[in-house]
Amino acid sequence: MDRIDRLDRLEILIERLIEKMATLATAITNLQTAVTADTTVEQSAITLLNGIPALITAAVNQALANGATSAQLTALTTLATTIQQNSTNLAAAVTANTPVASS
Question: Whole-angstrom Cα distance, residue 51 to residue 46?
Fold first, then answer.
């Protein structure tokens, strides 16, 4: 094999490498997009789970201010507490089952 043939072969290998790197860059970009979408959905769920008990608590406080009794509102208060506890349990389970990123 002469020098020109070697250079031609090297050029072909470099072109293949560039193509593979472009494919890898696209795959990384797609993965980043997917992670961003997942993060957005997760943050929305967290906001929802944290927001519901706060809304219930605000409604209970308003009802109390308007003359309702604690006994009348026990079911709502219990519901808010249950949702908060379930949210805490869910967060703990997600944390416990999320692999630690290696550095």
Answer: 8
What averages of pLDDT result for each successive group of 10 residues across the chain (103 residues)? 87 92 90 84 81 90 94 93 89 82 69
Q: What local confidence, expressed as pLDDT, does residue 47 receive?
A: 82
Q: What is the DSSP letter of 69?
A: -
- Answer for the pair 70, 64: CB distance below 8 angstroms, yes or no: yes
Q: What is the pTM of this model?
A: 0.55
Residue 43 phi, psi (nearest 5)? -65, -35
Sign, CA torsion 68/70/73/76: positive
User: Where exactly are the structural domains of the chain?
Assistant: 1-42, 52-92
Interior angle at CA 102, CA 101 and CA 103, nearest 5: 115
